[in-house]
Every structure is written in C-alpha cells, then in structure tokens.
Amino acid sequence: MNAIAGVRDLLTRNMRQSGIFIALVAIVALFAILDPMFLSSRNLTSIVLQYTYILILAIGMVMVIIAGQIDLSVGSVVALTGAVSAVVVIQGGAPWWAGVLAALVVGLLVGAWQGFWVAYVGIPGFIVTLAGMLLFRGLTYVVLDNVSLSPFGGTYYEIANGFLNGLFGGQGYDVFTLVIFGLGVAGYAVSQWRTRRGKIAYQQTVESMPLFVAKIVVVAVVVMWFGYQLATYRGLPVVLILLAVLVIIYSLVTQRSVFGRHVYAVGGNLHAAQLSGVKVKRVNFWIFVNMGFLASIAGVVYSSRVNGAQPGAGNMFELDAIAACFIGGASTSGGVGRVGGAIIGGLIMAVMSNGMQLMGVSQAVQPIVKGLVLLLAVAFDIFNRRRAAALR
Fold this sequence. Notes:
With 392 residues, the chain is an all-alpha fold. The protein has 2 domains: 285 residues, ABC transporter involved in vitamin B12 uptake, BtuC; 68 residues. It is 77% helix and 1% strand. The protein has 16 helices and 2 strands. A two-stranded antiparallel sheet has the order 1-2. Helix 3 packs across helix 14 and helix 4 runs parallel beside helix 6.
C-alpha cells in the first residue's frame, strides 16, 4: 500500500510531466500493437532522422513560450538559412563548414532583428514574428531565385544522414552505440541522485527509495533497448549526438543559470521581475537571438536531410514546434515549461506522424488528429492551473 501511495503522490505532485510520459508510452504501445513494424530498428532510426529538426526548434521555442512570447517565423527561418547554406556550398563551391557558418550567422541576425522589435520597440512577439514569417519566406525566394538547389553531398549531407559505427567493433550490433547509451544512462542516474540529495538537504519531499530506484531502472531499460535497436541497424546517428548535446546544454541553461531563472521570472510575473531588477528587455532580446540560432541549426539539419534547399521548405514547422512545447507541459500563460518536456512533446508528435504514415492514414486526417491532441494538451494545462488555484 505504501508503494501505491508513493506512486499516487508522485503523479499528483508532478502531473504535468508524468502525464506526458504516460501519454508517450500509451501512443507507442498503441502503434506497436497496430503495426509490429513500428518498433523495428529501421523505423526507429527513421524517426530519429526525420524529426530531429522539429525537436531542435522545440528547444528554442519552449524558452520563448516560458518568457510569455511566441515565434511564428521559425519555419521561414529554417528555409532561409538552408537556402543561404545551399547558395554558399552548391552554387559557390565553398566547403561544407562555410555553408554551416553562413547559416548560423544569418540565424543570429534574424534573431537579433526580431529581438530588437520585441524588446526595445515594444511590439508584441506575435506580430513581429508573423511579419517575420512573411519577410523571411520572401527572402528565401529571393536567395534561391525561385528554384531549388541540390545536391549538397559530401560531409554536409552526412550531418543529418551520417552514422557513427564500427569504432569498437561488434558482431551484428554496434558496440560504440551501446557504450554511448550506457554512458547516457549512467549520467542520468547520477543527475537524479544528486537532485534527490539536494531536495533532501532542503527538506523537500522526495519519492521513496524503492520508487526512485524503480524509476531509474525503467528509464535505463527503455533507453538501452532503444540504443540496442539503433545498434543493430546502422549505429548511432550523428544528428542524435547533436540533439543530445543541445538538450544537455539548454537543460543546464534553463535550470541552473541566472539567465534561465530570469526567463522564468519574466514569463511568470513580469511586474515582479521588473521590481526584482531583472533586465526584461535584455532577456526578451536574447531569447529571440537564441531562437534564431537554433532555427539556423534546424535549417542546416533539414537541408542536409533532404540534400538540398527549396523555397517552400519549413512550411508549418513553427506549428509543430509550438505544439510540441504545449503538449510537453508548457503553459499558455508563460512561466512554466521544461526542455525535457518539449522533447517528449515533440516525440509524441513524431510518433503520431510516423505511426499514422505506417498505417496509411490519409494526409487529410493526420492534421486533424494532431490538432485534437494539441487542443487536449492545452485543456489539460488549463485544468491543472484551475485545480492549483482551487487548492490555494
């Protein structure tokens, strides 16, 4: 009975995060039952390769949403940065790294442009980025002269399509992939243990030790199973390493840095943040610069994945990124959200898209399902806030 009570207490105290984990597991289980090929090594690798750029966008978007803003332009920025990279590498004959650098510079400039109008002129982010969505899409057409450019080939193509394998050998599976995933699990366990000790030191409530150990074991089993599936196909995708590095960095930035605390403060209570000495304009400026930077990384990954640049690239990417954040627990009113939650929300979107494609669901039906899931996620957020207000 104590274990059951502990589980119930854990779920109640962390409803927003535990709910999306349960939803992800349920959706994966549903598609695995409906189509046994869903959990195949080939399909799991395909999910990683096809949806990483949305997850990268979600990392930046969740910070924007936490600060109480929104960015509708990221899909157009993905197209523009990919186009600039294509012109530099394909038309100009420059090395792959020059194309990547050019894309990153353009992304930073775009972010600074939008951050200036939001932070220092005072125009709402919704309006600025809506204008940016049109502006940067038009610039994409100008840069590409209304034609597609391809192929990149070489190292640039390997950014989103390459694999690291064979470094440690292995018969029928890649040992290097398993080692990397094993290190990831060990790092997660150490991080959770240190977090638990910190909460105990500050006399905060923590789950029982058996429940804590069970959580670590479950995560370890799932992660290592996923790593084994990748190891038995083609090994560790290069783009997955990039995503993991970004998740770690931005998790630390949002949870452990002064800037991260200021982002939460601005979104949670703007007036209180101003009275506390938080430089609100500077925070708003830099969250848009950061969004432009991450959108440029997503632009490089996407253009590498499709091995070219098209004027219509990135269409509706902003909606997928925003949906990932809200499904992952971000609040519509700002001040709430986590990078990990946005990643889980993005995975839910990716799993649904991939599963429906495997089952042959009509392209007309797929956005209907995604829209309903987003609506339910926002309704869940509103229910939680009302419930919390009633308990106070």
